[in-house]
Amino acid sequence: MGIVCKGLVALALLGTGLFAQPAPSAGAMQSTIVLSNDKLELTIGLNGARFLRLLVRGGEPLSPLAAMGHFLALDGFGTPSEAERAAAMPGHGEANRTTARVLSSQEAGPVRSVTMQLTLPLAQETLTRTVEMVEGENVVYVTSELESALAIDRPVSWAEHATLGPPYLEPGKITVDMPATRCRVRAQKAGSTGKLAYLKDFDWPMAPLTKGGLLNLLTVPVGETSLDLASCLIDPARTFGYVTAFRPDRHLLFGYVFRRGDYPWLMSWMHYTGDARAARGMRQPTSGYRRNPRCLRASCFASPASRRTLAISVMSSWRAAT
Questions:
Q1: Contact yes or no for 35/52 (Cβ under 8 A)
Q2: How many Å apart are CA 9 and CA 26, to the nearest integer?
Q3: Does 130 reside within a domain?
Q4: Which band of pLDDT confidence, cut at 50, 70 and 90, is reported for residue 187?
Q5: pLDDT tens-digit profile of 196-247?
């Protein structure tokens, strides 16, 4: 008998404006579906059931998502191990490279929805993902159910892999914030171009620089090129954590809220290139570091390790104040 885990994720975008963004090309729109209500329009790619474009209807057509969109890294987050690579397990797991099958959809009424399913043969798992929009809300709800064909329980590597990109991600004009406490910069890797001091701990949002001094991670620096990654512990006193990306000049706010007990960490991937390839990840993984055994077995910053079995529940949402 398989083991099942269920979770709820939501994302939201609120704002108005007059900025024009080109529509995706005909080729880019292949194998996609569009789900909308009176507030939002979400384009979903069936390759991995990823979120490609999120727009405010009747407002500013500016999607916060990067070209890679928001995808699910499952069952795996980061570079596969040698054994996994030998078994043909791809980076970030199978889900993001698997074509989803649409099981059902509801295109009218107070709740619009689509349910998709992905089969992951290497991990021996089946993912069923339902995306819902409620009329009158700037929220997208995503309910996921993962079933394992294995007869035993085991840890699962799961990350909601959300990434911001241009033109929403504009240096000097965006603020990314979260209620984080202690953070750690990742270890140096071959070819690293990071400016943050590797493996150094710091208090959010002031990160240490290799050359000395501090960098405020709330903002995206103008004229900088670098690739850095830092994982931050969400305030342990909170029941819910959140991460938001605010463009005050466009009156747009995009964000996630999640149950801190499920995702104690928020990973910031900062790839600043000065052009359209720039990206900033706002990722909610089940461990503070990609496939880091120490963070699966031990505690970091006096917080219980974020280790998961196939019995996790994730909830995130963001709503406009009334």
A1: no
A2: 29
A3: yes
A4: confident
A5: 999 999 999 999 999 999 999 999 988 888 999 999 999 999 998 889 999 9
Residue 166 has pLDDT above 80, yes or no: yes
The whole-number pLDDT of residue 311 equals 22
Task: Write the CATH number for 106.
Answer: 2.70.98.10
CA 321 – CA 188 distance, rounded (Å): 41
Indicate the helix (H) or strand (E) that contains 203: strand 201-203
Write down the pTM of the prediction. Answer: 0.80
Between CA 229 and CA 234 the distance in angstroms is 16
| 319 falls within a domain | no
For residues 70 and 279, what is the distance between their CA atoms, to the nearest angstrom?
A: 12
- In contact, 102 and 192? CB cutoff 8 Å: no
Task: Tell me the one-letter amino acid at 150.
Answer: L
For residue 88, report the phi and psi dihedrals to the nearest 5 degrees.
75, 25
Residue 85 sits at φ, ψ, to 5 deg, of -65, -40
